[in-house]
Structure formats: structure tokens, C-alpha cells
């Protein structure tokens, strides 16, 4: 049986995750649970280290890497020990090179697979989905991350949090970092705005996870009641002129409800009457995005029912819609959507927003289907009342009109019943009219005996007329319904096509619109590979449902081996036909996406070929120069007739050596540039010091005596490939020496957050801001009119090598004139530790 994972999620470093984890371990140990410590990082905190007393600690595994001693959790020892619970600190930690797993969370997966429960810790800034947000807030990008799915899979997630002020006091008292790091931490990462933002991120992330779990439970248990665990406001928009007023009012309601979720809904009625003008959906979408609302389009035969179904599915607590634009006279026949929503909303609060358009329309209520129940009821009333009125008129007007006029009145009653209610009321009106005509107006009076055979023909003709008129009415209604549905389908297909044509990555949004339109729980595009295994090309909704076509409620074959599937409910045949068309659009989107990927690959190949061609065209001159010098010097040394003293011979040998060094550096740069273009550089990352690399890089550089090192011993090591970093520093320093105008070059290093920066400072003529970007391009020698040797690859290769080590190479002005090139790499030991 698989073990359970419990995670202590911290809002920021130093809030007490490890402390809370060790406290939980002691509580379980006191209950008799077998608990061991796989790995716990105390970071020199005495109070945290004190909690290790009384707990069994599995000795760590020692790894020697490039002369550095690294300690990691001994996964095999913990597996062999097989405790009930294992403590594994810092879930996002990167293991030492050569370990079985690259990440600690992968070690945790092995422990869970072995049936061992795990208690772990992680900070919110290490969640993979929040990396960009955290970097924007703090200015420091986290290099160690853990996939969100790993954290979401935990059976328990407990948030650990304290106020920003309390955390800063804890930091100032030396309970988080060593004294020499406190000032820098308080001034940068641990500023109050940063801590407030990180705290909000943690609370929102955990709230979303709780909300997802709640929705899953409601779906599994088929709970239809509204649980007011969180305010959600649904606003219905038609796209008309009143939509902006209604949306703004809904936004204010959501804000006053404590920042409630705001969802804008545009309903396309099943009869094609969307309630707005052409382009209404796009206009409404833009308005919703402007106030921070999510936008949804749904289809329903009844606008009110579709709106309430969406609100209940979203577990909404409030619905906002505008008052009816119908006139008072029209509302007598049909109270409108708002009235029906209020009557059927149940526990959902309904807000009716007044606007300038309210009550201005003079149109009669629209017919939603061919013959709705209200119209059929009216038809039966006309079928009963029409012949009765015709009879009264015939009796009252008998002194002045003859039987032919009475027949016309009954014909009129039959036609009115057919127009109002269709075939059934028309037949009733014809039969009732014939009987009343024969009883009250046709001799012999007050008898059902038909004395005149022509009356039989009259009744039969009335029946035939009623049937024919009713058939025409029914056919016209069906045609109108079909045309309206076709318009609705065309609007939907146009919306889907617009998504495919206008978005760079249309598949996720296309599937999301399919899920919203047909109210499905999940929608996926599945593809069967050559191994006959189904794989998800794209999926929206509950990913657990999108596995195989035979498990889906809706399965549409898009192409051979490609299916569009959905779960949540079955669809009628008409909707499946429309979904097949959407499947074709999904196929086009998929092919376009793959074609774009192929084009991007072709573009990369073309760029590589262009680089290769430029290399070949540039190499002729720059290789020929050192080769010519070597050949000339070697020829002079071999010439027996050329008198050379010791000084001349030494100078010629020095020329050979210098030219060979230049040739070696040139070939190294060419090879590195080619490897970078092909993506074939794989760094072996390990802790390395800037001072060691700088000393090595200066060996053999011409003019190295003009370089001064100002790198303190307390500067942290960086996580880099020593060989590649040596090349980076050598190229940057060589560039500074050759283009620095003979000035002294200074190397300084400093740490900030989890990065360590090396600055190569010269006081030459510098580079203008417009030329900074071109400075690192291949074959660039800016302002190089003095025949300085080289292909101009040095800084280009240096930037490429820095990038593969997850670093950055930038340029900035030197105060007082000159250029400073900054090498920024991640610290080997993360400065911001939990």
C-alpha cells in the first residue's frame, strides 16, 4: 500500500516549517509510531536542532564532487530501515550530481511507493507554477522548484505562517540566518511588501487547492445544494447597451463581498436568440476582462435555466442580472427571465440591476420553440371560445345575416385556433363549430339531425381548412426553429474558428470553450501512438477523467487514432454533429501547432546553418594570420643561412608560441560556438569559487598582469561547471584587456539573494546603450577599426556558456567611464533557505 504524504507549506523562509515538522514527529513518536529522520536541515538554528533529540536520525550519504564534500539523504538506508514515518526536509532540494534521483521529491516518491509515510516541507516560492510571480515580487528567481502536482497529491497540506513583522523580528534576533547575512536579507528579500505578497500567494494557493477538493467532493457525491464556503458572483450579460452598467455593478458587489470570484456569463439560447447584436460575445468578453472577471459562454433552450444551471455548477452564491427591457404590456404575457430566475434560484441571492434600457422595448414576448406550452394553451382556449363567440354572433345577428355568413364566422374561429395552437386546437374548433352550426343555426334548429346534406360538406371543409392551416403553422414554426438553431450553431462555430485562427496556442482554449458550451466536466483530445497506447494531446477540466475513449461519455472520432472525448453527461445527436465539426477545428489547430513547432525547428536549423556559414567565411582571415606567423617564424628558425643570435631565436620562438595560443583560443571558441548552436553543451554543475576560477582563467592571458582580483573569501561558491566557467571568465577578461584601452581590469564578486555576481570592470571607451545587445552577438567587434584580432566570438560564447549553467551575462556602464561585464550564477548553497 502506498504511503501518505504530509507537507508543511511555508509562506516564506524562516516561518517555522521544519520546527512544525519536528513537533509533529515528536507527537507521533509519543503515540508509539516508528519515526525516523531521513534528512532535516537545521541551518544552524539551535532551537530547531534541539528538537532532533530523541528522534532516530538515519546517517547521511557523503558525496565527493570536484573536491567538495556534499551530504545527502541516504535513500537506500531509509528504505532498508522501513519506518512507518520518515521526515524529509526541503522537498524542492536538488540532489548532488551522481545521485539516483536528481530531485529530493523524487526520493520521496520512492519512499511513498515503498509504503512509508513521509512528512516534508516546502516554501511557496519553490512551487513551479509560481516561479515567475515570485521572481517579479522579490527580484530573485528560484532555481530549485517542485512540480505543483507533487504537492497537490499530498493527503495533507498544512500552511505555516506568521506575520511579516514577526518574521522580520525573528530574522533580526538571529533565529533565521547568521548575523552577517541579516542586514542584506532585511534590505532585499525580507522587505515587508515582499513578505505580504508571498503570504497572500500561499493563502490563495492553498485556498484554490481546498476549493478544488471541495468541487471534486461535490461532483463525486452529486451534491446540488449551494455551499456558501466562498462568495462567487455570476453576472448575466446580453451584450446590449445595459451590459456595461450591469457588469460594473456586479464588480462592485464582488469587491464588497471580500474579493469574491466574479464570473461573467453570456447565454446563447438554443433558438439562436443570443440576446444581443452581432459581435456581442466578443464585446462582453472584453468588458469582463476589463474588470477582472472570467468569461463563460453557455448554450441553453431557456436562458434562465441555463444561467441557474451554470450558477449551481459553479457553486455561486449570488447572481446579478439586469431588469427586463420588455414593456409592462409584454410582461403581462411573459414576466421575463429575471422573474423566472428569482422564482427558481433557491438559496442563491439574485440582484436585479436597473438601467436606462429597462421597460423601453415594446415587442411581444419571443417564442422559444415551435409551439411552446403557453401558445398551445392559448390555442385550446381559442378553440373553445371561438366557436362559442361565432354561435352567439350568429344567433344575435340571425335577422340580418344568412347561413353563409355564419359559416364564415366558424371558418374564422377554426383558422384562429390553428394559428394559435396548431393541429389539435384546429380540429377541436372545426368539430365544435360544425356541431354548434348544426344545432343552433341550421334547420331543424336545436337538433343534431343534419337535414341538409350540404352541411356535412361544410363541416368537412372546415376540418380540412383547419388541418391545412395548422400544418402550415407547424411547418413554419419548425423552419423558424431550425433556422434559429442554425444561427446559434454558426455563432458557436465562428467563435471556435476565431479561437483557432487568432490564438498562438489555441487547443487549450478551444477545449475549454467546448467544456463550457456543453457543460461537460472534462474535455480532452486523445491520440493513439504506434504502441497502441492513448496519450493526451490536450485536456481541460478534471485531468483524471481524460484517459481513454471507451471511458468517456462523449466520444467523437476526429481522425484515425485521434478522438475528441468528454465526460460529465451524454449529448443529443444534434450536439454530437456540431461537436464533430469542432473536432475538425481541433485537428486543424493540432496540425497548425505541430507545423509551427516544425517551422521553429527548421528556423533553428537555418540559424545554425547561417552561423556555420558565417564561421566558414570569417575563419579564412582569422586562422590564416596566426598560421602565417607560425610558418614565417618556423621558416626563419630552420634557415641555416640566416644568422640568428639567441635573442632573435627566443623572439621567433615566442612568436610561434603566441600564435599557437591565439590559434588554440580561436579553435576553442569556434568549437564552443558550434556546440552551443547545436544545443550539445551539457554542464556538470558543482560548487565552485569565483576566486579559484579567476586565478585559473588568467593563466596564459596576454596582459594578465593588468588584472587585479578583489574577490573576498566570504563570497559564496556558485553552482557551475568549472571548465565552462573558466572559459567564460577567460573570454570576458580577454575582451576587457583587448578593448579596455590599456587600463587596469578589476574582478569583483558579491552575493545577492540566491545569486552570486562577478563583475569584470575596465575603464576603456565603453559601449553605448544602443550597442549593448549587439555586444554579445557572434562576429561582433564593436568599433574594431584598429585590426584587433579575433572573430568576435568571445562574448557570444561566454553568454551561451553562462546560459546553459542557468546564469546571465550582462553589460553595464563603469562609473567614470568604461564597461563592466557581469557574470551572474546561482549560489551553490541557496542563500534563501527554509
Automatic annotation (TrEMBL):
Domain Histidine kinase: 618-829
Catalytic activity: ATP + protein L-histidine = ADP + protein N-phospho-L-histidine
Catalytic EC class: transferase
Key words of the record: ATP-binding, Kinase, Membrane, Nucleotide-binding, Phosphoprotein, Transferase, Transmembrane, Transmembrane helix, Two-component regulatory system
Membrane topology: Multi-pass membrane protein
Subcellular location: Cell membrane; Membrane
InterPro entries, per the entry: HATPase_C_sf, HATPase_dom, His_kinase_dom, HisK_dim/P_dom, HisK_dim/P_sf, Histidine_kinase_KdpD, KdpD_sf, KdpD_TM
Entry's EC annotation: 2.7.13.3
SUPFAM superfamilies: Adenine nucleotide alpha hydrolases-like (SSF52402), ATPase domain of HSP90 chaperone/DNA topoisomerase II/histidine kinase (SSF55874), Homodimeric domain of signal transducing histidine kinase (SSF47384)
Membrane-traversing stretches: 377-397, 409-436, 456-477
Protein name as annotated: histidine kinase
Species, as recorded: Pseudonocardia spirodelae
